[in-house]
Specification:
Bound molecules: guanosine-5'-diphosphate
Subcellular location: Cytoplasm
Subunit structure: Part of the signal recognition particle protein translocation system, which is composed of SRP and FtsY.
Binding site for GTP: 108-115, 191-195, 249-252
Protein name: Signal recognition particle protein
Organism: Levilactobacillus tangyuanensis
Structural class: alpha/beta
Distance between the termini: 12 Å
Radius of gyration: 22 Å
Helix content: 40-55%
């Protein structure tokens, strides 16, 4: 289960304070030490952990929490609020273009869940807004990638624009956008190629697609199971493409929590959606406060 270890350790750290009418500075220091270790063990970025712990400690010291009523409960509340803040505070919705189509470019490493998420998002837009999205198959390096997108699209009854694997992806996107204009599609979702690691050639190609398509939204898909690597990936893509949002996938797995808690703080970019399963309906809007509650258990 996601966050299992982290939840247990955080609860354990704070349980020790329960029932105490007054908390000494030494108690607080010990609790903060345990929280810090719990976060580091969950693979949360070191700087994020440092800032988080300082923030919680300062608030606990500052607001007479230690002397007040129910200090343990107040500290739980502060931890909850600071976790929420670290993950961005508010849900951030999809960027929309004032005139159709809204163009969404999906980017991410191979296996992160890009193609699956493109389908999930198309279905969400169809279901919630009665939208008529068009998907563009821009991954020409793996023939299986196009087949996969076509299969996903058939399952949710959304059209795919594709020109096979022999045409340059920038040209595919150009022609796909022309088709979307002709058909008055209100959304275009561009699936792009992924690699096992960030490489310059791929980044240049993605930049070219970005320059041509002027996407309203560049959604980076990252695998929550990969912890700090997910954060490094996010930084790499963001440096080159200035992404507008992140989709964190595989939160139904036993991720430790590092990616969820670090990405916003490290990149400054909001997590907009979370993937919670392999089915097309398993995509949810990311709510930092709900995620904080889930982490605290
Ligand atoms: P891409 O290479 O980035 O396009 O990745 P895919 O979309 O092909 O996804 C790779 C694998 O991850 C597939 O088996 C997907 O079914 C799976 N996957 C994607 N998102 C999720 C998710 O949120 N939860 C789970 N459990 N599996 C996912």
């Amino acid at each position: 289960m996601a966050f299992e270890g982290l939840t247990e350790r955080l609860q354990g750290a704070m349980r020790k304070l329960r029932g105490k009418g007054k908390i000494s500075e030494k108690d607080l220091r010990e609790t903060m030490r345990e929280i810090r270790l719990a976060l580091l063990e969950a693979d949360v970025n070191f700087t994020v952990v440092k800032d988080f712990v300082k923030q919680v400690r300062d608030r606990a010291m500052g607001a007479d929490v230690l002397e007040g009523l129910n200090p343990a409960q107040q500290i739980v509340k502060i931890v909850d609020e600071e976790l929420t803040k670290t993950m961005g505070d508010e849900a951030v919705s999809l960027n929309k273009s004032p005139k159709i189509p809204t163009i969404i470019m999906m980017v991410g490493l191979q296996g992160a869940g890009k193609t699956t998420t493109a389908g999930k998002l198309a279905l969400k837009l169809k279901d919630e807004e009665n939208a008529r999205p068009l998907m563009i198959a821009g991954d020409v390096y793996r023939p299986a990638a196009i087949d996969q997108l076509v299969q996903v699209a058939e399952g949710i009854d959304v059209p795919v624009f594709q020109l096979g694997t022999d045409v340059n992806p920038v040209e595919i996107v150009r022609q796909g956008l022309a088709q979307a204009a002709e058909n008055h599609n209100d959304y275009v979702i561009i699936d792009t190629a992924g690699r096992l690691q960030i490489d310059e050639q791929l980044m240049n190609e993605l930049s070219e697609i970005k320059d041509l398509a002027h996407p309203d939204e560049i959604l980076l898909t990252v695998d929550a199971m990969t912890g700090q690597n997910a954060v490094a990936t996010a930084e790499g893509f963001n440096d080159k493409l200035d992404v507008t949002g992140v989709v964190l996938t595989k939160l139904d797995g036993d991720t430790r929590g590092g990616a969820a808690l670090s990405i916003r703080a490290v990149t400054g970019k909001p997590i907009k959606f979370i993937g919670q399963g392999e089915k097309m309906t398993d995509l949810d809007v990311f709510h930092p406060d709900r995620m904080a509650s889930r982490i605290l258990g």
